Amino acid sequence: MEFGTSGLLWNSALVMYDRQTETLWSHFTGQGIVGELTDVELDTFPVATVPWGLWRDAHPDGLVLSRDTGFDRSYGRNPYPGYDDVNSQPFLFEGEVDGRYTAMTRIVGVELDGEALGLPLVTLQDQRVVAATLAGTDLVVFWAPGTTSALDANDVAGR
């Protein structure tokens, strides 16, 4: 499937659409929320958030999306500066916050064999390396200096 950004929000999170059926998808849950594929769940794939320089050095022949799209858009401008500030309140959010963390606390999540681990990014940043066991498997989670959010400044060009 090919996905695009709808420009909509659902529970304060990005809503994607697929170009094949025009179903709207929650990026947070990976589920179709409106359209032909409502309640269908997308397959998940692991991802790592790393500093650009670290990724570039590890993948010198890697492909990167081009800003040369044929459309006149300000791709380097952040439309939501400061959105993920941990002390801000999310807009269009209908859920309850349980009080352990703020609604905007960024969490590193790992799921393995039906078990899940959530680690606040600020904890990882402070400790730099966190060891854990999940579903009987030993894990080590690393903080890479330079890791940042694309939403923490007005200009994302250097991020």
Q: What's the short version?
A:
With 159 residues, this protein is mainly beta. It has helices at 52-58, 121-127, and strands spanning 3-10, 13-18, 24-26, 32-34, 107-112, 115-120, 129-134, 137-142. The longest helix has 7 residues, at 52-58.
List keywords for this structure.
two-stranded antiparallel sheet; 159 residues; 9% helix; mainly beta; four-stranded antiparallel beta sheet
Question: Ends: how far apart?
Answer: 28 Å
Taken from the alpha-carbon principal axes, the silhouette is globular
Helix content: under 10%
Strand order of the largest sheet: 1-2-3-4
Order of helices and strands: EEEEHEEHEE
* Cα-based radius of gyration, to the nearest Å: 18 Å
Secondary structure category = mainly beta
Number of alpha- plus pi-helical segments: 2
Low-confidence stretches: none
Per DSSP E runs of 2 or more residues, the count of β-strands stands at 8
Strand content: 25-35%
Question: Major sheet: size, sense and barrel closure?
Answer: 4 strands, antiparallel
- Overall pLDDT: 85
Multimeric state: single chain
Description:
The chain is mostly beta strands and 159 residues long. The chain contains two helices and eight strands; from the N terminus they run E-E-E-E-H-E-E-H-E-E. The protein has helices at residues 52-58, 121-127; strands spanning 3-10, 13-18, 24-26, 32-34, 107-112, 115-120, 129-134, 137-142. The strands form three sheets. Strands 1-2-3-4 form a four-stranded antiparallel β-sheet, with no helix packed on it. It starts with a strand and ends in a 17-residue tail after the last strand. 3% of the residues are buried.
